[in-house]
Amino acid sequence: MTRVHAKICGLNDAISVKAAVEGNADYIGMVFFAKSPRAVTPAQAAELTENVPDTVKIVGLFVDPDDTLIRDVLKVVRLDLIQLHGSESVDRVRDIKKTFNLPVMKAIKIAEKIDIENANSYVGAADMLLFDAKAPKNMENALPGGNGLVFDWRMLANVTPSLPWMLAGGLDATNVIKAVSISGAPCVDTSSGVEVKPGVKDPAAISQFLASVRTI
């Protein structure tokens, strides 16, 4: 089995970026969604990622963005992957990929197995998928992602998604090994699982999460 890759998302301070890079994260994520406690401006992201080596892919997370926002980010930030975490249609995903000539990862919110099956509609439009937990309708102040919710990983067992994919949703150093064992995820993504509170990363937790992933 090839090694499991890891992404640390929602980074917004230099110490946490350093912890992710030194911990051998494969991806780091910057959130360009103003309502998120993890949001950064293009200028902040440019400063935070200035010394990130090319071996670490920089991901820009957007929620139903217009082209102007993506363009403003790309003027100053090296993005290797665009992550779409809203309600973007297949056509919109395809359009963003074509317009900006960058790989696109579409987040799919999961509550039941049919949600995984519906992800197949993005084949030919997206380059990757990210399976995240769908927030219940009665959850107050729910964000498009990063709510710390876990879905039933067994829904992914014996399923081979049609695109490369990542697993997200409430992952941390204590459960990521089990999550991969059950789901077969080739890549894992965490944000709230390495925080002391929403939007405040814990560098030690980042290091612990990445160390756990390396043992898989």
Task: Supply the key terms.
single chain; 216 residues; alpha/beta; TIM Barrel; eight-stranded parallel sheet; two-stranded antiparallel sheet; 7 helices; globular
Could you characterize the architecture of this molecule?
With 216 residues, the chain is α/β, with parallel strands linked by helices. It has one domain: Aldolase class I (TIM Barrel, Alpha-Beta Barrel), CATH 3.20.20.70. Helices cover 30% and strands 20% of the residues. It has seven helices and ten strands. α5 links the parallel β5 and β6. The longest helix is centred in the last third of the chain and has 12 residues. The model has no long low-confidence stretch (mean pLDDT 92).
Furnish the topology, listing elements before pairings.
Layout: E1 5-8, H1 14-22, E2 27-31, H2 42-49, E3 57-62, H3 67-76, E4 81-84, H4 90-100, E5 104-110, H5 113-118, E6 128-133, E7 165-167, H6 176-183, E8 187-190, E9 195-197, E10 200-201, H7 203-214
Parallel strand pairs: 1-2, 1-8, 2-3, 3-4, 4-5, 5-6, 6-7
Antiparallel strand pairs: 9-10
Helix pairs in contact: 1-7, 2-3
Write a brief structural summary.
The chain is of the alpha/beta class and 216 residues long. The protein has seven helices and ten strands. An eight-stranded parallel β-sheet has the order 7-6-5-4-3-2-1-8. Strands 9-10 form a two-stranded antiparallel sheet.
Shape: globular
CATH superfamily name? Answer: Aldolase class I
User: Widest sheet: strand order?
Assistant: 7-6-5-4-3-2-1-8
Strand content: 15-25%
How much is the radius of gyration in Å? 16 Å
Number of strands: 10
Helix content: 25-40%
Could you say how many structural domains there are in total?
A: 1
CATH architecture: Alpha-Beta Barrel
The biggest sheet, with number of strands, parallel, antiparallel or mixed sense and barrel status, is: 8 strands, parallel
Low-confidence segments, given as residue ranges, are none
CATH topology: TIM Barrel
Distance between the termini: 10 Å
